[in-house]
Structure formats: C-alpha cells, structure tokens
Amino acid sequence: MGFSLLLLTTPTGMSGLLSAGMSGRFGLESVTGLTGIHTLITRTGISSKYLKLNGLSKENLNHEKLINLARLGLIFSEKKAASYLKLPIKVFELIVDAGVLDEFLNLDPSKTPLFPWSREELDRVNRAAADLKPTYYQEISSLRHGVVLRKVASQDNIDLDIKAAIIRDVLAKKLEVLDVVGDCLGGVMVDARDVIDYVVNRQLNRLLATSKDDAVAQINSPEWVIDLLVRLGFLDSIMANKEPQIVQYSINKFTESYISEISLANYLGIESHELTCKVDELRIPSINLPDASGAKPFSFISKLFLPRLEGSH
Fold first, then answer.
1. pLDDT at 275 over 80
2. CB contact at 8 A, 185 and 129
3. Residue ranges per domain, the chain?
C-alpha cells in the first residue's frame, strides 16, 4: 500500500509535510512481546528490533513462528483484523485500499503478507472510535434512530463505496456519532437518516459524475494529481460500471477555490518559473503535491490570492 503526501508551503517559507493517511493524531505505541519487551509488529511486517531481541531472524521467522504470534493475538490476518474491528471483510478490505486506516499504521521495511496487521494498530483504530462517543447524553428516539456501523456494513442493499464513505467520514469526524457500543469501530452508532442521505446522494452523484479524463481536462493536471486529490479528500470519487468516476460537484467546488500553477501562469501571461518567484516573493501559500517519480511537485494556489498576484504583475 502506498502513501500519499501533501506538501504545504507556508507564508513563512517553511514547509510542513503531511501524510494523507498518517496525520500523527495518534502516537506510535508498543505492545508487549514474547519476552515481555516492547515490540514493533507492524502493518507491513515484523520489525528487525523485534526479531533481534527475540533471537529470531528474517530467515528463520518461518510460518510456524508467525502462527504462534498470531495465536498470541499480536498479529492478525486480514479476516481476523476485520473481525476485531467488527466489520465485514469486504468492507474492511475496501477501506484499507482506500487509505481510510492509513493514519493508524506503523511502517516497517519487513513484510508479512499472511499477517499484515498488528494488534497495536487495530487497538489504535478502536480507541479512535471509542473516543468519538459523545460526552453528553444523546436521546435516541423514534425520530432519531441510531444504527451501528457493523449493521450498516452488513447491508447488502448498500453499495461498498457508500459504506466506505460513511466509515471514512465517521473517523474524520464529519458525521455525527450518537453513541459507541463495545468500544470498537463497528460499534459506532450514527443516525439512520444520515445513512439514508449517503445512499440517496451517492445515487444522485452517479448521475452527475464524470470520467477521470474529463476531470484531468477541467482541473488542467496530470491523472496522478486527480488520484491524489481524491485520496486527500479534495475530490469525491465513485464507482460506476466498475470504473472510477469523479463527482462533478466536487470538481466545481475545488476549481472555485484553487487554480493550478500552470493555469495561473497562462492566465497572467508569464512563465511558470516567474510565477513561482512571485509566489515566494509575496509569501503566498501554495499546495504542492509531490510526484512519486521525484519530479517537481504539482502546485495549486488559492484564488483568494489572485488580486495580490494580479496587482504585482
């Protein structure tokens, strides 16, 4: 699983590196291993530190040892991880692929494909869900019917992408939580009416969605930028006829607020490098999306700063 990064250049000239999936809201914690020491058993594998302290090596960390670690509840298969969060496996796999749980991961160069999740990570997800429980009393009446996420996720008449969107927005605190039952992600309770709104809106979005190629043309950016904007939440994406489509409303909302550096340079009638100098000189913040190939980041500038740029031209 890759990780998308967002580089935000501030007016002070300092750069902050943000991870689209790893916000740093939750500190890296540790679990107790076989010898009672702190370990790192991560989403992508078992750390070299753990292996060394337990007298193991990557060569002799065989299937049997992995099974033992799994029996101790330190590492999980995808199916067991989904069960631990009280979610159906298909929904769990989708939110993982969509990067919804990226911020809860530990990174490690080793890989254990058979058991790709650690209890540490899953506990962090469940704690984040438990923390969403309101501190005040929520009256759940016939007019305010609550439904837990595990029930929403198990409904065959709700599309997978809708379920993933609801879980994503719950964790992002964009959707009101009525209660949390069992202190787990699947036990988060939301208003049933909100779920209905998601279903209806997604059906409408299907009628108002456009192709990724069209989004590329409208935003005037490479395709990888569209993918990253979706992952970062700037654009909304749905699946239609097994192909990703970009919701037109989200494109309109984004282009109303931001303009690419390439488009802005053309608008001002100057070269791209001249615009970069002006942005730096006027201390205007820009959103820079780094290319995985190491090429120059693709930049967007808020349209709020257009008058300053036009006045200096």
1. yes
2. yes
3. 28-128, 134-193
